[in-house]
Amino acid sequence: MELKELIEKAWLDRELLKSEETQNAVREVVSLLDLGKLRVAEPNGEQWIVNEWIKKAVILYFPIQQMEVIEVGPFEFHDKIALKKDYKNLGVRVVPHAIARHGSFVNRGVIMMPSYINIGAYVDEGTMVDTWATVGSCAQVGKHVHLSGGVGLGGVLEPIQAAPVIIEDNVFVGSRCIIVEGARVCKEAVLGANVVLTASSKVIDVTGSKPVEYKGYVPPRSVVIPGTLPKKFPAGEYQVPCALIIGTRKESTDKKTSLNEALRENNVSV
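Now predict its structure.
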């Protein structure tokens, strides 16, 4: 509560960032994020709560940090935020060219192929962050998730009240999927390659006799592929992107099933 009070005061009066007490408070919050003891967003039953004051601390961290040269063998960086370290003791496998910034939490058993995890992000145990996947600032990724090659999870710091991208436990995200603007993918869902989700994206369940629409939200165990729907403009009617729920992942299917197996179960050609 003391940290929260100091952060809230500094948010309203940036002059307070000149004080050592405030700077220490900001750095303490970022260190607690790094250790996974604080989270920008956390589950509360079926809902997620955004801790706005923690996002404020992340934003306030940038102006109090100085640019420094970071040398990693023959490589050199020039930035305000240190790189995460001590992966062996953290129990994280990190392939060369994978980068996580200080202030991100990467839990035991995570595998980082050449990829990027930004400050404020939370990546839970057993998750695979595959080649060139990016986990944006404050994105929340659950346990045993597979982020396939080239997946982009958008970051969010401002506006403060905006929810981060949320990927819940045991989700499979196919290659080149883009998930931004606080979109939420619920437990055990499977996203086919190239699915794009934003806060306003239509996610349409086409498994019944009538379509059921969601926005920026994928229900649990859904199997999702890219789709299009017609929309009229002054210049004519055109197809705009959407996402289609074409089935449900079976209870009997192993949680680590491949994308191909999940799609075959729902009679979709691979």
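The chain has a mean pLDDT of 92.
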